[in-house]
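User: quick one - fold this with fe (ii) ion bound?
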Amino acid sequence: MKILFLADVFGVPGRRAIEGHLAALQERHDADLTIVNGENVADGAGITPKLADRLLSAGADVVTLGNHTYRRSGIAGYLAASERVIRPANAGSEAPGRGLAVVEARNGVRVSVLNLLGQLFLATPVSPWEIVDTLVEEARAAAPVVVVDFHAEATSEKVALASWLDGRVTAVIGTHTHVQTNDARILPSGTAALTDAGMTGPHDSVIGVRSELAIGRMRTRLPVRFEPAEGDVRLEGAVVTCTDGGLAEAIELVRVPA
Ligand SMILES: [Fe+2]
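Assistant: Sure. C-alpha cells for the protein plus fe (ii) ion:
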C-alpha cells in the first residue's frame, strides 16, 4: 500500500496548491492514505478550524501540526473534538486535542498517525524521548501501519528518533524546517525515514516568508511582520510504500510544481 505525505502547507499559496493538485497527486501515486502537515496554513503560522476543514475536504485523511498549533483562535476547541486533525503528542497535559489518529486507509488497512515535537531549539513542553515508546506501543496496538510526523528543527534529533524507532514503525517523516532533505531511505529493520519532507508553498522565499522581510528582521533585529511569499509554489513530501503489515518497502520524494 502507498501513503502520500505532504509537508508543511504554507499560507494561501500552499493551501491553493493542495486544493488544486492533491487529487491528481493521489491518483498518480495510487495513494491509499494521505497525511498533510498543516501547521503553517494560516498565513504561515497556525491553522484555523475552517482551514483544517478545507485540507480535509481537499483529500487529507489526517492533518498533523507542530509548534504553531495553538496560534489561532478557535483551534483549541476544534482539536479537542477532532479525530483526524492532531497536534504533537508531547504538547503537554493541558493541551487540547490528541497526538494519535487511527484511520482506515482506502485499501481497508488501519493506520496510526503520530505527531511529535522535537526538543532541540523549540519550546517543547515534554521531551519526545519520555513518551515515544509508550506512544508507539499504543499506536501499534491500534494499527499495523504506523507513521510518525516528527516536527523538529535539528537534523541530528530527527535521524536519532528514526533510528530509535527502526523496526517498530513504518515511517518517520521529519517536518518543520521547510527544506527537503535528500536522505530518504529504508533503515536496516524496515522503517522508512526522511529527515525533512520540505514545504508545500512558495519556495521563492525564506522558508515561505517574503525574503526581504525575513532578511530584514535578521539584519536589523527589529520586529518585522512576516507575510507569505508567492513565487515558485511547489508541493513537497514523500510517498511511502509498505506491506499491509507495516513494513516499509520504499520511500520516494515528492517535489512537483503547483
Ligand atoms: Fe514548525
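One thing worth noting: The mean pLDDT is 98.
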